[in-house]
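Entry
Fold in token form

___
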Amino acid sequence: MSSSEELTRKFARRFVAMGDSFTEGVGDIDPSSPNDVRGWADRVAAQLISNDSSWGYANLAIRGKKLEQVIDEQLHAAIDLKPTLLTLYAGGNDIIRPTVDLERLMSRYRAAVQKLREETEARILLFTGFDSAKAPVFNMTRGRTAIYNEHVRKVAEDLGCEIVDFWNMKRMQDWAYWDVDRLHLGIAGHTLMAKEVLRVLGETDEIDDPELDAMPAVSLYDRTKDHLTWGRDHFYPWVRRRLTGASSGDGMSPKYPQLTDKVW
């Protein structure tokens, strides 16, 4: 018997998370965690295991991955782990590219969810994309995200999946929930997302509400300076990676490629 088969036998309930940086946990810095990040999925897993010790957890997500990469690299691995709960979010890295064929991508998304439905008995949670109406630069992609969300909602309806509705989590439009790069949730954002996922699951939630630091009033000069600093330190490096074909996830491995109950 392989080690993977032994683990699936060990854990009666198996949570498998698929995706990109959002699910890997980028922005929730934790040097004690694999890849130096924790994230909402780890927090959900820790709570599930606390509620019921029969849970095992695997996180296959890797930062920088586009939707088709997530499908090609994670789908079969997820199926092999025989999940009883599976979360999938991918597509954000496609939406913010200069061009994207959403109809083709979402056709692949539907096919991937269909395969998960056919080959596992998992409860499947899908995510809508974030409403970037108040986000500088990325607010230009809001229309694409709305189209993406309509596809996600239709796939969920047709295939019997549940939705974590990130689009309507309007509290997240407060930048205090985000990392300094404005691309990823910060510790508070990942904590709030974990609580929302647990709410959708109907699971006991003992996670403390995130505490936000009061945001001081900022002058126009300081706000402009902050935008310029953000552009230099975060936006332009992101653009450079896109132009060179590099990814923030190059050379990285999944945090938890096999089922475990050792999550904090």
